[in-house]
Amino acid sequence: MMQRTLATLLLTIQLFADTIQWMGSFDKALVLAQQSGKPMLVVLVTRECGACRELFATTFRDKDVVDLVNEKTIAVIVTEENEDYPIELLYTLVYPTLFLLSPQEVFLKEPLRGTVDASLLKEKFLNE
Prior knowledge:
It contains five helices and five strands; from the N terminus they run H-E-H-E-H-H-E-E-E-H. By secondary structure, the chain is α/β, with parallel strands linked by helices.
């Protein structure tokens, strides 16, 4: 029994260690960013967006990206349907769009729009 519990715990830790810890609410992510002093990585997507699905299937599964995003940012996914985010985020016609915001909701970098691979994300937002 103890071995099974330990194995389950280790598997759970491994699963969470290999994924980005996404927040589902902009407001909650903002509070956490303000408390931690970390910038927010905001990913604006739509449900119908093929490039959005590709971003999550490839870029956000890259181990270096996962580690850097979890270490350096508060990550949040925003869809058009959400209502708890700054209206400025809607001023885009290209999806996905990635924003790096300070805890004071100031844009820290130019947004990345469309297809974003791991190397571009690391270079432009994560400084690697």
